[in-house]
Specification:
Two copies of one chain form a homodimer.
Chain A: E1 4-10, H1 14-25, H2 27-34, E2 37-44, E3 61-62, H3 66-69, E4 76-79, H4 87-96, E5 100-103, H5 106-122, E6 127-128, H6 139-146, E7 152-158, H7 161-173, H8 177-187, H9 195-198, H10 201-214, E8 217-218, E9 225-226, H11 234-242, E10 245-256, E11 259-270, E12 282-289, E13 293-300, H12 304-323, E14 336-337, E15 347-357, H13 362-372, E16 377-386, E17 389-396, E18 399-400, H14 401-413, E19 417-426
Parallel strand pairs in A: 1-2, 1-4, 2-3, 4-5, 5-6, 8-14, 9-11, 11-19
Antiparallel strand pairs in A: 7-10, 7-12, 10-11, 12-13, 15-17, 15-18, 15-19, 16-17
Helix pairs in contact in A: 1-12, 4-5, 5-10, 7-8, 13-14
Chain lengths: 428, 428
């Protein structure tokens, strides 16, 4: 048993303050569970003058990261600055100096995980990142450990709170994207530059991490197909509801034969699916294992307090390993190379909306093209009239995306089709 | 690293077969993750002749538990016979012989946990029981480890699949209890003698275990208030729906000042609550921590495959501890005595249905009694006429159960009240 475990922090922004807060507020409980004292002994941040929403001993602050990274007293470094650089260099230095690392940095783990985990393994150090996906939801631990006896078939997540908030507002209040985004920005639910969230990049990092653990394989972030929510309209949300479908930005990872398909895009799912009722800023990760069946993990996917909870859990895990001489006990199990299935090969269902000339035979010509491309139609709804045109909504049965895209291309060129307005993937 | 970790099993019933199945089916994956071989080397069961739904080497079978418990080659004993005796004696013998134990036996852990964990701790052995609550849902690991940095405020679970199936059928199909129970028995979703499930005893064991971990205190099962679902009628379910409420058998553990309240009873919750849409045999556990906020864990709460998943996760956890010399790493953290709040003191809301004389002033006399007992009324619905009587449904605001019960006693005696037909607790 180590009498005292010393923590150094890099980054005292919003998330850093949440982590510091939980380690201070629940210090007695945490120490009692561990049987060791746990002290934050140094905090590096470029800004050491701003007021923070958490009370702490200001003498711990330094602008010099070396005072954390080179401090021989420090056992665990908590990195919470975000982004790849200089976070990567800091984490590598911490590991090379024999320090365990806790981070909530999804971009870093998704892009540079390979190098970092190799460095940690070489030195028998722990590198923990529960807070990188789903805030305080213990999904990393579940996949690495509790569900470890399963062959995981798929992981489907709502892993970005901002887009889930926007889509929920659009759905419940019948409002359009731009309007809700503006409101989300005003309320602080969306960043001033929301690109990272609304284009799905944040979700892409997260599903890359989850897929890697679930399928024990190294995922290249660039192989993850990614499409944001900017083109979703209230019109499509209303049509979908008529069809018993709800819209979510889903991050999907599935085994498909020997390959894996990993993709982030707006998706229609049955309103009866447990993910359909995950609303507002909440996240949820739906996992299917060969023995456990379907399990879902739900909670606040971001924010200083939930992420602080995850960081504290990681710190306690490492502290136990230190005390039992068992560091490196649960190493990175990303052992395989995996081949990503191209979107062309991915088979799913599709919702589509188009404007057509309102005269006999139109449906027949569209159905003809679909038939040639082996796309079979599940349902058709004729919607409102727009001048000489009628709006038609269709949902296909499952078909390879290559075929569907080819059919759409051909249908767009039919003289009777004014416009294929939009299409959205539909998951079972 | 131990080259091979040997498992002995006690009990090869339905659940035992599920555990054996996962350890065989996913053997290669499990061993690759652990870096050790994991072999089931002996299986004790009184019945060694019946056909089982899993293929295995019949030479492993014995009717003599000693061949597992006294076998010096065996590292981990999996106990899956259920019930307190002789399971307790077997687990104690295993521990005294230096073997780690995995069990899914909720009754054993809830009633005899104190003695068993003490024995395990004394010998630095692991005693794991993820499968005892929520089947394959990793709720024990989450509470013990990932959420360990939180002060847990409450745990609310749907932890019994049979009753959830019955209540779901009653709600969705407008049918009465007896009819659905008979059907559930016919389909094998309810035992021939369903007492343990429908009276809430099974849920009581489970919430006693969860509360103990969440509040790090020893819970006496007898202190857990327990009420089953046998008195729930389709009439009340319909009334509740009109009020925006759904019926669930909830297992509730909450801190209440310095005390804890732990109770199992049919409960009305808002249809918007995430637990309200947990249907059929699915389970879910809703946890509130001071930092993580609200998190929910959802999945199949029973059955051989999900429970097998939990058992395999525990086996892997122990195997890692063996390999790293870290057994006893995550000990039982039930450190405190906790005082149970009596139901008299518990404050909640109440739904009630009664038959009253249909004449002026009736509501005033009822409201008068409620007022004297400091019970305040949230909503009132006048329902159908029954001869000279009218049916009235009321929902109170939050009030201590002592006051509510006293009010009901007095109201029952009012000359204008023919009958207080039923009342059900309502949770926020």
């Amino acid at each position: 048993m180590k009498e005292q475990i010393n923590i150094g922090m890099i980054g005292l922004g919003t998330i850093g303050c949440g982590a510091l807060d939980v380690l201070q507020t629940n210090k007695a409980e945490i120490e009692r569970k561990l049987g060791s004292r746990v002290e934050v002994v140094k905090i590096a941040d470029l800004d050491i003058t701003s007021e923070r929403p958490v009370k702490f001993d200001k003498r711990l602050l330094t602008t010099d990261a070396s005072e954390v990274l080179e401090n021989p007293e420090i056992d665990i470094v908590i990195e919470l600055i975000g982004g790849v650089h200089p976070a990567k260099e800091f984490v590598l230095r911490a590991l090379r100096n024999g320090k365990h690392v806790v981070t909530a940095n999804k971009e870093l783990i998704a892009k540079e995980g390979a190098e970092l985990f190799e460095e940690a393994a070489k030195r028998n150090l722990d590198l923990c990142f529960e807070g990188a996906v789903g805030g305080g939801i213990p999904i990393i631990a579940a996949l690495k450990s509790s569900l470890g006896g399963n062959r995981i078939e798929q992981v489907i997540g709502i892993v970005n709170g901002t887009t889930n908030y926007i889509l929920t507002k659009m759905s419940h209040e019948g409002r359009d994207f731009a309007e809700v985004l503006a409101e989300a920005k005003a309320h602080g639910y969306a960043e001033p530059d929301p690109t990272n969230d609304i284009e799905g990049y944040d979700a892409r990092y997260k599903i890359a991490i989850l897929a890697g653990i679930a399928f024990t394989c190294r995922v290249n972030v660039d192989d993850v197909y990614c499409e944001g929510i900017t083109k979703i309209t209230k019109r499509d949300i209303e049509n979908a509801r008529e069809l018993g479908l709800a819209i979510k930005l889903l991050a999907i990872a599935k085994r498909s034969g020997e390959k894996v398909q990993i993709r982030v895009h707006p998706t229609l799912i049955s309103v009866d699916h447990p993910l359909a009722s995950v609303n507002d800023v909440y996240n949820a990760i739906y996992v299917r294992g060969d023995f456990v069946g379907d399990v879902m993990f739900y909670g606040r996917g971001a924010g200083p307090r939930p992420t602080g909870s995850a960081v504290a859990g990681d710190v306690m895990d490492i502290a136990r390993n230190i005390n039992f001489g068992a560091t490196g006990r649960l190493p990175c199990a990303v052992l395989d190379r995996c081949e990503a299935q191209s979107m062309d090969e991915v088979a799913t269902r599709y919702y589509m909306r188009m404007l057509v000339t309102d005269r006999p035979g139109v449906l027949a010509s569209i159905a003809g093209v679909f038939g040639e491309q082996r796309v079979s139609i599940g349902s058709v709804i004729q919607k409102d009239q727009h001048g000489d045109n009628a709006e038609i909504v269709m949902v296909t049965h499952q078909v390879a995306e290559r075929n569907f895209r080819r059919a759409i291309e051909l249908i767009s060129k039919l003289p009777v089709v004014a416009e294929v307005s939009t299409w959205i993937r539909v998951e079972e």
